[in-house]
Amino acid sequence: MGKLQLLSKSHYKILLVVTEVYRQQLSMYEKKEQSIQDRIVSLTQPHIRPIVRGKAGKSVEFGAKLSASCRNGYVFLDRISWDNFNESVDLKIQVEEFKRFTGFYPESIHVDRIYRTRENRAWCKERGIRMSGPPLGRPPTNISKEMKKQAQSDERIRNSIEGKFGEAKRRFSLGRVMAKLSNTSQTAIAITFLVMNLSALLRQAFWLFLCLFHNKNLFSGFRARTISRNYILSKKDEQNLSF
Is 71 helix (H, G, I), strand (E, B) or coil? Predict the structure, then answer.
């Protein structure tokens, strides 16, 4: 009979994972269930969980789930979890973090449908924050041009966070994280967003240099206004969050 002391550290870890996988499968078989909490799907990466997304051709995804916000072109990684979670519970924490950083609440937040719960709407209304998206209840029959224009503007702003995730995957290899351990994978993800923010800062510094060097209306008219919104944080300026 073999002894556990003869196993290497990696083999002993896999043995523990196999034991837990057997326990989970036996429990689902006896209870005639199709799911179990903290289900293991990989022997070498037992921290990874299946996350049901319901997308066409890819109903289930495996990997870390991120909760992030976009402010003035910069992405702030608010939460990394290997378990599935409801993003709407993070909205209050993200808005309060914005207030702690700037000293005031944002004028508006631009969120996905999952964030537009009754609780989040009431919480934002108490603090004078406008939430993007249609109101609850039956949609109005007549929509004014101002409301349509506001809805289109809100959607363009919210698309910034979607574009940031696409940029992180295409240019900064967010979709090809090769780390195996949980902590090293989270570090690689955080560094990806750090480098992406540094790249955005470099672009803004480049345009600022052009504005100061040339001092022409071509740059000071359009680019300087963009840069001022990113660097001057006053309550009169329109500040918004995107999730």
Answer: strand
Identify the band that residue 243 occupies on the pLDDT scale cut at 50, 70 and 90. Answer: low
Expressed as residue numbers, the domain containing 83 is 65-242
Rounded (5°) CA angle 148-129-125: 100
pLDDT, one tens digit per residue, over 63-102 is: 888 888 888 888 888 888 888 888 888 888 889 988 888 8
Cα angle 49, 23, 47 (rounded to 5 degrees) comes to 25
Residue 104 in domain: yes
E strand or H helix that includes residue 50: strand 50-55
Query: Closest by alpha carbon to 36, among 26, 45, 47, 46?
Result: 26
* Full-model pTM: 0.74
Domain tally, the chain: 1
Q: Nearest-CA neighbor of 147 among 130, 129, 123, 127?
A: 130
How far out from the chain centre does Cα 19 lie? 34
Question: Are the CB atoms for 210 and 223 separated by under 8 Å?
Answer: yes
